[in-house]
Amino acid sequence: xxxxxxxxxxxxxxxxxxxxxxxxxxxxxxxxxxxxxxxxxxxxxxxxxxxxxxxxxxxxxxxxxxxxxxxxxxxxxxxxxxxxxxxxxxxxxxxxxxxxxxxxxxxxxxxxxxxxxxxxxxxxxxxx
Length: 128
Ligand code: SF4
Ligand code: SF4
Description:
The structure is a single chain. With 128 residues, this protein is α+β, with helices and mostly antiparallel strands. The chain is 23% helix and 27% strand. The protein has helices spanning 16-24, 51-60, 84-88, 114-118; strands spanning 2-7, 29-35, 40-45, 64-67, 72-74, 94-96, 102-104, 124-126. The chain is elongated and about 50 Å long. 18% of the residues are buried. The model has no long low-confidence stretch (mean pLDDT 94). It binds iron/sulfur cluster (2 copies). One iron/sulfur cluster binds next to α4. Residues 72, 88-91, 93, 109-115 line the site of one iron/sulfur cluster.
């Protein structure tokens, strides 16, 4: 499952992610990380069965953890297969297949919402 981890200013100097992984033995696959000396926001993938353990360890160290379990839904009636979502998606979720039909690989999606904003036909939304 995909999770979002927020590291607030007062904890940003601590190695929260590394400590939590070492303590629990749970590996996080970090997909996006926006971190500077004042704030941190990460999107990571973790096995479903390990979520509670790593969440507890991260939160004990001052991080905030939430799940990103709402999928992006495409309304096939509205979609005109213009390809705008292909060009804006940072994770290459969308591709055209050999028949020029739009294909979506939801496993790669980090729920950034960029495709929803950019779709000219409002064919995309978060959740069902
Ligand atoms: S941007 Fe919207 S209309 Fe264009 S291909 Fe993507 S989902 Fe379809
Ligand atoms: S929400 Fe972001 S990562 Fe997911 S498909 Fe849309 S643009 Fe790509």
